């Protein structure tokens, strides 16, 4: 049984390995020169940058994935738990380290507000319970119709998830200080959402980063990509780079081949890990599309991002591995992303700085640092060199002001990546970096389907599908798809 995987992102690489293990003859075709999709690697002047995901969270999901092969992540890459997990720079010059030691975090929250330690302890207990519920009953199952929700256990537990309450409301009931609220909400931005449009059950993120920990794979997230490629090769997967799919030929409601500039790949099934809207609107014939263009136009997209990959000629010692810079106009920042009437390049955004060289000696030459500077942008905005330079200058000035040192003059290599780059390199719809955000109406059944509604042997994996955004979610998506294909065809 032949399977062609379109796209070598985390979704494509993981589903390829699973299907190959299940007995399929698997070929992965990828438009770019390397595997990883949005987790591409950029190298310049001795500096090495993971271009996309930079947080290794939910280690249990990675463990469960590799266990399908009788393996462990540690068979491919060593893991280190970061401490501090991340550093937060507040607008009032306060700096807070979220620690790998829960007792230190309880003390930190007590410093934020009276009774903060007990509030955090209760919050973490609630988020852990919700995490267990979502992992046991929600994430590893597919949803095809409303009847998939009529499971007595799911319904009983689902009520506890408060699906109609947003995260902002949930958090405000539990913490009074601005600092505590922001620390437990910041991570929702990495899921492409806003506290106002994200269901409250995503408070699980605090359990994930404080209880389960923030980890780093030796060699960066690129080491995870390399592990998936190696795993696939062990089961005979063929990888073809610099070979973009140009069409999926459909005959009689069945995909017969995937066409590329180098020829056609005959196949029995197709799994698409390319950008979902792009594949629907550009690879499939119009009468074979599950969703019309109007469907995507109505969806709430996750942000795009402005990213500066910087190599600097010295160590910026005041920065930890992960750093969050929170500006006073927190809410306005989300409005410039999610409110169509206010969408614009931000004037004073909160931003994130990743310094992998703080942990990884292979990321930069000795005595220097790699910086990954990121600010979210609304998808679909105009993207010009002038707008990029203005935002870059602002972010660098703010970072220098907050840290109290000159950094701009230390930059020896620089690459800017933003909206049009996401569209060009990854065929990303309107330049989104992450796909669809996690609103209630874009969760589970209401995300784009894993299986095509029009073509019997076309399936989709990746961040657009259930369960959603992030590397762990993508691995789960692939496990759902692979299980269905192996059960059906195996």
From TrEMBL:
One of its GO terms (molecular function) is oxidoreductase activity. Pathway: Carotenoid biosynthesis. GO terms for biological process: carotenoid biosynthetic process. InterPro entries: Amino_oxidase, Carotenoid/retinoid_OxRdtase, FAD/NAD-bd_sf. Keywords: Carotenoid biosynthesis, Oxidoreductase. PANTHER family: PHYTOENE DESATURASE. This is Phytoene desaturase. It comes from Methanoculleus formosensis.
């Amino acid at each position: 049984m032949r399977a062609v995987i379109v796209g070598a992102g985390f979704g494509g690489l993981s589903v390829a390995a699973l299907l190959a293990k299940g007995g399929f003859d698997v070929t992965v075709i990828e438009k770019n020169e390397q595997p990883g999709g949005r987790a591409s690697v950029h190298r310049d002047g001795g500096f090495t940058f993971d271009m996309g995901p930079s947080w290794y969270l939910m280690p249990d999901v990675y463990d469960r994935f590799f266990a399908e092969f009788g393996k462990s992540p540690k068979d491919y890459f060593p893991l280190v738990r970061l401490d501090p997990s991340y550093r937060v720079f507040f607008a009032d010059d306060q700096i807070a380290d979220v620690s790998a030691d829960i007792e230190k975090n309880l003390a930190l929250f007590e410093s934020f507000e009276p009774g903060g330690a007990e509030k955090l302890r209760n919050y973490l207990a609630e988020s852990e319970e919700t995490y267990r519920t979502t992992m046991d009953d929600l994430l590893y199952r597919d949803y095809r119709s409303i009847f998939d929700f009529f499971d007595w256990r799911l319904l009983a537990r689902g009520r506890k998830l408060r699906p109609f309450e947003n995260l902002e409301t949930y958090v405000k009931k539990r913490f009074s200080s601005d600092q505590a609220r922001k620390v437990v909400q910041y991570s929702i931005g990495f899921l492409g959402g806003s506290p106002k449009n994200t269901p409250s059950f995503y408070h699980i993120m605090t359990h994930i980063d404080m209880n389960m920990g923030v980890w780093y794979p030796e060699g960066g997230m690129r080491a995870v990509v390399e592990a998936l490629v190696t795993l696939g090769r062990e089961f005979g997967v063929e990888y073809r780079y610099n070979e973009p799919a140009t069409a999926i030929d459909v005959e009689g409601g069945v995909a017969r081949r995937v066409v590329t500039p180098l020829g056609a790949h005959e196949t029995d099934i197709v799994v698409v890990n390319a950008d979902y809207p792009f594949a629907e609107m550009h690879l499939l014939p119009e009468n074979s599309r599950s969703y019309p263009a109007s469907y995507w136009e109505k969806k709430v997209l996750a942000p795009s991002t402005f990213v500066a990959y910087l190599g600097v000629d010295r160590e910026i010692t005041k920065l930890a591995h992960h750093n969050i810079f929170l500006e006073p106009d927190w809410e306005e920042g989300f409005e410039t992303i999610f409110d169509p009437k206010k969408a614009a390049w931000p004037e004073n955004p909160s931003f994130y700085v990743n310094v992998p060289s703080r942990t990884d000696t292979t990321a930069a030459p000795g005595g220097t640092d790699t910086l990954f500077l990121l600010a979210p942008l609304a998808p679909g905005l105009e993207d010009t060199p002038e707008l990029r330079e203005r935002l870059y200058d602002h972010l660098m000035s703010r970072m220098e002001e907050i840290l109290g040192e000159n950094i701009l003059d230390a930059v020896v290599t620089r690459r800017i990546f933003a909206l049009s780059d996401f569209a060009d390199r990854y065929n990303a719809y309107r330049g989104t970096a992450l796909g669809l955000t996690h609103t209630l109406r874009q969760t589970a059944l209401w995300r784009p389907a894993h299986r095509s509604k029009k073509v019997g042997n076309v399936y989709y994996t990746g961040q657009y599908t259930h369960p959603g955004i992030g590397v762990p979610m993508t691995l789960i998506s692939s496990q759902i798809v692979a299980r269905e294909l192996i059960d059906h065809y195996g």
